Amino acid sequence: TDESDWDISEFTELGDEGSAVAVPVVAIVGRPNVGKSSLVNRILGRREAVVEDIPGVTRDRVSYDASWAGRRFMVQDTGGWEPDAKGMAQSVARQAEVAMKTADAIVLVVDATVGATTTDEAVAKVLRRSKTPVLLAANKVDDERIESEAAALWSLGLGEPYSVSAAHGRGTGDLLDKILEALPETPRETTLTGGPRRVALVGKPNVGKSSLMNKLTGEDRAVVDNVAGTTVDPVDELVELGGKIWNFVDTAGLRKKVQQSSGHEFYASLRTRSAIEAAEVSVLLIDASEPITEQDQRVLTMIIDAGRALVIAFNKWDLVDEDRRMQLEKEVDRDLSRVPWARKVNISAHTGRAVQRLVPALETSLASWDKRVSTGQLNTWLKAVIAETPPPMRGGRLPRVLFATQAATRPPTFVFFTTGFLEAGYRRFLERKLREEFNFDGSPVKVNVRVRE
Ligand code: GDP
Questions:
Q1: Distance, CA of 363 to CA of 309 (rounded, Å)
Q2: Which alpha helices (H) appear in 2-57, and where do they start and end?
Q3: Is residue 159 scored above 70 in pLDDT?
Q4: Which amino acids bring their CB within 6 angstroms of ligand 1?
Q5: What is residue 136's three-state secondary structure?
Q6: Per mean pLDDT, which range of 8-22, 79-93, 288-302, 358-372 is the poorest?
Q7: Which of 273, 305, 300 is nearest to 446 (CA)?
Q8: Where does GTP 1 bind (predicted)?
Q9: What tens digit of pLDDT does each residue of 260-283 get?
Q10: How far is the CA of 204 from the centre of ligand 1 (A)?
Q11: In 227-374, which ranges are continuous DSSP H helix?
């Protein structure tokens, strides 16, 4: 057998022109326990629970492939893990903000048996100014008797509440029809191309994010931080750097420190996560004057898991002497070995040293993140690589790699079609070779394998 009898009809959407990339995104938002996960499961058409909402636990995956009436889309489950009622409104409001920036349609899920809570109202207030279409799902309407409770949710000002029972499947088909109607022809990912690139400044507390933001904007303005999710701006700021306009996302927390007496870490982490997701590229600040910490690693993991482009900025360089510099080099080799491809810049937000050097690093990383390799080029490369280093035997058989295609950009995602399992070591080898050949500096690269049945 060879690649000619491999049936790729199923993957015809994976052309060279990027049609596969543009799948619309539907975000599901709402407070905990309203049944978001059940609704996501319904939409995906499966029974097993998606990862449960566990406080403080970072999820690997928040997006799932779905289809309805022959149309493909992604379902983004925004989660909702909240310790206390006051913080909850704020955090659900932040989910809504991220959704407004990243999704093509938003579904706010409300528990009809409970009615509109103050949290629901706060989120609805945010969503009422959304340019992204918003649908209101009144969940837990298990039978007609609860319909009137659902109708009461008109009060949220988000139009007609669609009654559903995620648990029993009641009304979910109708909701899906409405979702499809609301989705734009052209998903956001393509419509946004050409606008200012979205950048997040992230890193552990006191690493210098606010100082850098001030240095970049050349001003020291404080922004009023609003109470518990009632109002949420200003969240993004447009900044001119290197002759271009950049959109720094989620800067509210950098402008005025959010003082949380309890759960500070938790909020910091939630904020970081939402900033990363709202951005295309993250600048991870690391304090160069101190050892690299576990907290730095956690933020790095969030960026990689989110599949965003990355620039590492070693800040407080003004405090670094020769000894520390040597030590830092060792730490980088040891602790940042999983991102040898990351662009690194040494800066001082305090003195302004080299902050302009962030610009070429951001540009390189985004170019890699956007990069598309043609199927022809990819397979020419693949043949040569396999001829030189075939995959190792498995169970006495040599798995054959038949064909490869780049299924997506942002980040570059490759699919290898094979006759057998490729072990992790060989997948990493392929990624390394891909990087050597096509250069994806500054961007994560995903390597997926489809085994032929
Ligand atoms: P954030 O929590 O990440 O926003 O950190 P801040 O910007 O509030 O900075 C925390 C502290 O580090 C402040 O006292 C800053 O003045 C200081 N700082 C930030 N950047 C630098 C730097 O490049 N050099 C030095 N020496 N101090 C810095």
A1: 10
A2: 36-44
A3: yes
A4: 203, 205-211, 254, 315-316, 318-319, 348-350
A5: strand
A6: 8-22
A7: 305
A8: 30-37, 77-81, 139-142
A9: 445 666 777 888 988 998 899 999
A10: 11
A11: 252-255, 264-278, 294-306, 322-335, 358-370
At which residue do the structure tokens 């709402």 appear? Answer: 30
76 forms beta bridges with 27, 63
Angle between helices 294-306 and 264-278 (to 10 degrees): 30
Order of strands, sheet of 161-163, starting from the edge strand that comes earlier in the sequence: 63-68, 71-77, 25-29, 105-111, 134-139, 161-163
For the stretch 250-263, pLDDT in tens is 787 776 555 544 56
Which pLDDT does position 412 carry in this prediction? 93
CA distance 426 to 323: 38
d(CA 281, CA 427): 25
C-alpha of residue 356 to centroid of ligand 1, in Å: 18
With both helix axes pointing from N to C terminus, report the angle between 118-128 and 85-102 in degrees, rounded to the nearest 10: 20
Pairing of the two strands 63-68 and 71-77 = antiparallel
CA of 98 to the centre of ligand 1 (A): 27
Q: Which atom of ligand 1 lies at the shortest distance from residue 353's CA?
A: 23
Q: What's the token pair of residue 9?
A: 């009809």
**Best residue for ligand 1 mutational test, from 211, 223, 283 (most atoms within 8 Å of Cβ):** 211
Q: Are 95 and 78 in contact (CB under 8 A)?
A: yes
Rounded to an integer, what is the distance from CA 26 to the centroid of its chain? Answer: 13
Q: Tell which atom from ligand 1 comes closest to the C-alpha of 203.
A: 3
User: How far apart are alpha carbons 32 and 110 in whole angstroms?
Assistant: 10
pLDDT for 360: 96
